[in-house]
Write a structure and sequence with these properties.
Helix 2 packs across helix 4. The protein is globular. A seven-stranded antiparallel sheet has the order 1-2-3-4-5-6-7. It is built from four helices and seven strands. The chain has one domain. Strand 2 and strand 3 form a beta hairpin.
Amino acid sequence: MAHDEAIVRLAKQIDAARKSEPSLVSAEEVARLRRQGACQLHQICAEFVSSLNSRLSDSALDLSPPTYAPEMFRESAVNLIQIGAQGREMQIAFQATPQLFSTEKFPVPYILDGEVRIYNQKMLERFEIRSYLLFFCLNESAAVWRFFDWRGGGTAAVDRDLLASLMERLF
């Protein structure tokens, strides 16, 4: 009897896992969404930099690369976006998952993963670089960037406010 209960429980878990997986199975569709995700992340960064620079009087944030197009996404390599000002840096590194999608590091299926690293000169002198995880997640209705603070377990959408709160820690 206990054996049957274990089998029934496992069958339910397998069915639930399959239902949580994205219905996208086409490699072409995933490749398109990855390029879209890279552009979306750069657009969030560009809007943050533009918004902040419009309010600064004596200095400005730099964004690298300054523009981003879908063909700039590197499927088999790490992609990098950097935001910096006065020796304070935010690096966003991201890459495609080895499989079409993954749930290895985050419970929601994702097709891109990476991290945000923030640091300034004092932090470098102490060998202290703060890092936070990023995931381009798929759900039934959309694909969105999610931020995950592995130290505290918090998660949030990646947006200008999140970038501002991270950058603020450097000043």
